[in-house]
Design brief:
- With about 220 residues, the protein is α/β, with parallel strands linked by helices.
- The protein has 9 helices and 8 strands.
- It has a single domain, classed as TIM Barrel (Alpha-Beta Barrel).
- Strands 1-8-7-6-5-4-3-2 form an 8-stranded parallel β-sheet.
- It starts with a strand and ends with a helix.
- The chain binds D-xylitol-5-phosphate (DX5) and zinc ion (ZN).
Length: about 220
């Protein structure tokens, strides 16, 4: 299993002070910046694009940026995010006409591709493309908003993907996104996740470092 990564979702950050907020979570011990891109089309909300990603890089943020695309179509925006400094680019298979081509496009542009599964999306895509991915992202809420409750059916799904990744022998990250808090992160880790997105649980806390440390401690218990 790969080292655990905590990935604060900046969706719950104070956007008026975004650079400062990202610096603060990183110096509080976060490993990667989870960057939620919503288009008011694939999901019913509208957030941030490549310009903001580039602005974070220009602000001196050098941690990995994990761009979670909730947009349709996908391919048009991939080169822009690569240029803007994205590290991982993940997308929803329902939003792409040609999933294998989109994965290749992300790789060609020098980024690390990942596929995202909504709570009701079957894992069957992985039968054909797992070996081309650097990340599998399982949604434990329906995408579109921060602050929703964790959907428990994500847990058996995490276990299933853990087995698939272990069988593949490849260093593929297993990320889980939605409703993760200090009090359920242990179960998510025990099921086999190694990358933990948390938006409201971190940015809604007074003390980012204490929250991240408490999360890490629960993850360590599960491993
Ligand atoms: C939801 C986003 C999540 C969201 C998580 O569509 O993909 O990354 O920000 O927020 P919390 O942790 O508050 O559920
Ligand atoms: Zn996300």
């Amino acid at each position: 299993m790969q080292p655990a990564w905590i990935a604060p979702s900046i969706l719950s950050a104070d956007f008026a002070r975004l650079g400062e907020e990202v610096r603060a979570v990183l110096s509080a011990g976060a490993d990667v910046v989870h960057f939620d891109v919503m288009d008011n089309h694939y999901v019913p909300n509208l957030t941030i694009g490549p310009l903001v990603c580039e602005a974070l890089r220009k602000h001196g943020i050098d941690a990995p940026i994990d761009v979670h695309l909730m947009v349709k179509p996908v391919d048009r925006i991939v080169p822009d995010f690569a240029k803007a400094g994205a590290t991982f680019i993940t997308f929803h298979p329902e939003a792409s006409e040609h999933v294998d081509r989109t994965i290749g496009l992300i790789r060609e542009h020098g980024c690390r591709p990942g596929l995202v599964f909504n709570p009701a999306t079957p894992l069957s895509y992985l039968d054909y493309v797992l070996d081309k991915l650097d990340m599998v992202l399982l949604m434990s809420v329906n995408p579109g908003f921060g602050g929703q409750s964790f959907i428990p059916s994500a847990l058996p799904k995490i276990r299933q993907v853990r087995e698939m990744i272990d069988r593949s022998g490849r260093a593929i990250r297993l990320e889980v996104d939605g409703g993760i808090k200090t009090d359920n992160i242990e179960a998510v880790a025990a099921a086999g996740a190694d990358t933990f997105v948390a938006g409201s649980a971190i940015f809604g806390a007074k003390d980012y470092a204490a929250t991240i440390a408490a999360m890490r401690e629960r993850i360590a218990r599960a491993r």
